[in-house]
């Protein structure tokens, strides 16, 4: 996988993960173009499209679009299921996840994604194991933080 | 505001809420600037921040960055967080670095140190965090720093499973960055045996890694075939309860299955009959399962199941050796063609394209022709319709060509604009390829122009003309048909071009009919003249002069037209000139001379259709196919990777063909076409530096020397020559037609070099074209000394090759001689020229003459590196014009060569073909010799 983008129906980018090195300018350009392209598509259309030299696989969950760019020879259907697995993980973690959870806890969304995919390849397909890893991280945080210091 | 979990940072949540409450872009920017100022002052302030605060601010910066704003500080604070002993701080530090640190950051050393510390940790969570960061950044530095540690973690016996998973994928990422960190030798078998690991997660991650390693070194990893097959076999025969959490919606381990099936596509079918048999059983089982009732109605179930099925079909197609499996695959896909799910229909059409090209399944695919035609017409989604068009193209052969071409033509009238051009190309190719009756072919092409004239590219109408000229059985028909087509009140300009050309050649064949008498033909064509572009008008003028020869009875009418256009009424200089020359020709020349000059065009040499090349270029990702492959016999084949080789060839050939054809791109003149022999010319010029390094080597005494003048075509400074005795550096500057070259002669020995002398020799008349003034050197070059010698060069007129400097001296009583090509190739006198796309293409077209173009098609030294190519092109001296060429991979450049006598504008286009690993370089300038030389010089750089 080359990158994954999450964006809202209004075209606001909510999360971006790049597995190939591009300059920031190019990333912005790609993001802009793709969001426009995908938002213009109708609901019953195919979830795959050829775009430049990659294949785009996308799916909408409620108000959020999940969009992955994969290599020409990668498996489209299974990419849809990577997206689904990610949504399931977010859902389990946040408890029926909504867009706001991802906005306010964007760092968590990244941490969960990092457990699922590493360097653009699937790392762990077992939902139980990913959740276990995230729980272990959270536990470490609780341990190191007895009291949350008072905000200034 | 939703509840925040765990270590929530309230300040961050408040900030995010604030941003969300901003009513306008301006107020958002204002709020962000306020926050940035606040954070900046906190970071700069005297009070040391505690870890929590640092974390919070770094996190805010990250959020601001993700909103699309630039962040230029905070990196150091983030790096500090890496060494925090609180996990959540460390984690935020790593996240910031992964998202925001670019690879050449100064901080990379500090980051690497922190990662090193975390890699020593025994806590798998810390270890994984460090590896995620390595994989996220994945730079060369990372590969160098960790290329040793990561493989060790991967195969060590006491590494935990979760760590192994990360290590495998981390190593994969590093391997993609730098192929050197590939572990080989004893590592190979240990890595392969990860396929046998108990833990499914480890196997899945390892399979991704092995797939990449196999691509680099298939022989070394051949052992993975049998392991992969037995692993696959265990999965497909497992019940869905066996694999527990690795079963996804009742499908056992779909990710691992797909990866194993992919891995096997790197090899030809297994040699070992046992392994081969087991693999075929697996594939059959997967096909059987597709027929079973679904275990769940959820789309996840069918997606996962079908993902495995499609990958299995890909492997079946790749192996291309089991007719039975191929036909079963085809039937299965046929069922999908009428599935409710758009996604499945799309993928089925795509896979079928490949099946259509196998000799075993081509016929089976043809059975679905009707459904595919329906898909092309009825699908709601254009990308699906596009796949249907591709499949029709792939399944077309001589038995169904007429029907398929007709259906495509019908559909073209209402087709989406986005796919019309490509469809036109496909129809044109099929019509030519499968024409048994060329009147059919002519009809198809004229229909194409009628229906989709705007989308008919030059190549298409050139081609119909070539074919008509080469086949005398169709000439009369073609003349009659174009004549009829031209009678339509509104006909496309492309029709006028084809009509003009064909009537000019073969109008006499229909002149016997009163309805298409010479005068009628002429008047019909001329009624379109005023509506056409200058290019078409030029073509029509040529048609008219040909009429003078064919139909002397209307000579007078034609001369009238020439007279009208030979003066100022014709705003275009080319048209004026053409008209007056043709007029003179018709007045002065005798009938014999006229007949010779205006003779019918000779036949074109047979060549592959250039349209195919255009089509291939349009789809750089995948080569469209309408060729049936010869399948592998069901018996084991011996060689791997034959496909890759056989793929590269046809596209190279076709690229050549299109190069030749461009000869037509100037308005066709009435001169008989001279068979192009530019190809030979290129060979004769050869590699201008080819013999030189050898020569230098012969003359010099020391065996160890570095001398590569080619490098200096694209750069101005560096060490030009070095052996054990001397080093000669160069620094040059160019301005307009003047150049100043500073040579630094360095003596590397502990002895003085005596009788040190330099002379310049210029081959042929180069000395008059490139004038060089050089100051003589002092005869002694002291031990360890370096002396500067300045050369001034002036480009008087364009030239080829470059002057040579001969250096002679005496070292240790032995005379030495060195010859060096000076870095004074013609491209040094380029002034880069900025221009927009429109003016570029206008100039490009103007310089289309046979004598103005030079082209070379050549193999890239693999692997093709576009970034390096870019650097070279930029160093070449012309202006690199980005965003002009529709294909972003292509390089387009413009520049002016300054000589005292003239300035020569020069345009260049370099088209990499990644699939074939070939480049095509085209240079156009107002002077043939310049085009040739520029082409040679640059082509030599790759």
From TrEMBL, chain A:
<dbReference type="InterPro" id="IPR000804">
    <property type="entry name" value="Clathrin_sm-chain_CS"/>
</dbReference>
<comment type="subunit">
    <text>Adaptor protein complex 1 (AP-1) is a heterotetramer composed of two large adaptins (gamma-type subunit AP1G1 and beta-type subunit AP1B1), a medium adaptin (mu-type subunit AP1M1 or AP1M2) and a small adaptin (sigma-type subunit AP1S1 or AP1S2 or AP1S3).</text>
</comment>
<keyword id="KW-0168">Coated pit</keyword>
<comment type="similarity">
    <text>Belongs to the adaptor complexes small subunit family.</text>
</comment>
<keyword id="KW-0653">Protein transport</keyword>
<dbReference type="GO" id="GO:0030121">
    <property type="term" value="C:AP-1 adaptor complex"/>
</dbReference>
<keyword id="KW-0472">Membrane</keyword>
<keyword id="KW-0968">Cytoplasmic vesicle</keyword>
<dbReference type="Pfam" id="PF01217">
    <property type="entry name" value="Clat_adaptor_s"/>
</dbReference>
<dbReference type="GO" id="GO:0035615">
    <property type="term" value="F:clathrin adaptor activity"/>
</dbReference>
<keyword id="KW-0813">Transport</keyword>
<dbReference type="InterPro" id="IPR016635">
    <property type="entry name" value="AP_complex_ssu"/>
</dbReference>
<protein>
    <recommendedName>
        <fullName>AP complex subunit sigma</fullName>
    </recommendedName>
</protein>
<dbReference type="InterPro" id="IPR011012">
    <property type="entry name" value="Longin-like_dom_sf"/>
</dbReference>
<dbReference type="GO" id="GO:0005905">
    <property type="term" value="C:clathrin-coated pit"/>
</dbReference>
<dbReference type="InterPro" id="IPR022775">
    <property type="entry name" value="AP_mu_sigma_su"/>
</dbReference>
<dbReference type="GO" id="GO:0006886">
    <property type="term" value="P:intracellular protein transport"/>
</dbReference>
<feature type="domain" description="AP complex mu/sigma subunit">
    <location>
        <begin position="1"/>
        <end position="139"/>
    </location>
</feature>
<keyword id="KW-0333">Golgi apparatus</keyword>
<dbReference type="InterPro" id="IPR044733">
    <property type="entry name" value="AP1_sigma"/>
</dbReference>
TrEMBL record, chain B:
<keyword id="KW-0813">Transport</keyword>
<feature type="binding site">
    <location>
        <begin position="10"/>
        <end position="11"/>
    </location>
    <ligand>
        <name>a 1,2-diacyl-sn-glycero-3-phospho-(1D-myo-inositol-3,4,5-trisphosphate)</name>
    </ligand>
</feature>
<feature type="region of interest" description="Disordered">
    <location>
        <begin position="621"/>
        <end position="652"/>
    </location>
</feature>
<dbReference type="GO" id="GO:0072583">
    <property type="term" value="P:clathrin-dependent endocytosis"/>
</dbReference>
<dbReference type="InterPro" id="IPR012295">
    <property type="entry name" value="TBP_dom_sf"/>
</dbReference>
<comment type="similarity">
    <text>Belongs to the adaptor complexes large subunit family.</text>
</comment>
<keyword id="KW-0472">Membrane</keyword>
<dbReference type="Pfam" id="PF02883">
    <property type="entry name" value="Alpha_adaptinC2"/>
</dbReference>
<protein>
    <recommendedName>
        <fullName>AP-2 complex subunit alpha</fullName>
    </recommendedName>
</protein>
<dbReference type="InterPro" id="IPR016024">
    <property type="entry name" value="ARM-type_fold"/>
</dbReference>
<keyword id="KW-1003">Cell membrane</keyword>
<keyword id="KW-0653">Protein transport</keyword>
<dbReference type="Pfam" id="PF01602">
    <property type="entry name" value="Adaptin_N"/>
</dbReference>
<comment type="subunit">
    <text>Adaptor protein complex 2 (AP-2) is a heterotetramer composed of two large adaptins (alpha-type and beta-type subunits), a medium adaptin (mu-type subunit) and a small adaptin (sigma-type subunit).</text>
</comment>
<feature type="binding site">
    <location>
        <position position="52"/>
    </location>
    <ligand>
        <name>a 1,2-diacyl-sn-glycero-3-phospho-(1D-myo-inositol-3,4,5-trisphosphate)</name>
    </ligand>
</feature>
<dbReference type="InterPro" id="IPR009028">
    <property type="entry name" value="Coatomer/calthrin_app_sub_C"/>
</dbReference>
<dbReference type="InterPro" id="IPR013041">
    <property type="entry name" value="Clathrin_app_Ig-like_sf"/>
</dbReference>
<dbReference type="InterPro" id="IPR008152">
    <property type="entry name" value="Clathrin_a/b/g-adaptin_app_Ig"/>
</dbReference>
<dbReference type="Pfam" id="PF02296">
    <property type="entry name" value="Alpha_adaptin_C"/>
</dbReference>
<keyword id="KW-0168">Coated pit</keyword>
<dbReference type="GO" id="GO:0030122">
    <property type="term" value="C:AP-2 adaptor complex"/>
</dbReference>
<feature type="domain" description="Clathrin adaptor alpha/beta/gamma-adaptin appendage Ig-like subdomain">
    <location>
        <begin position="710"/>
        <end position="823"/>
    </location>
</feature>
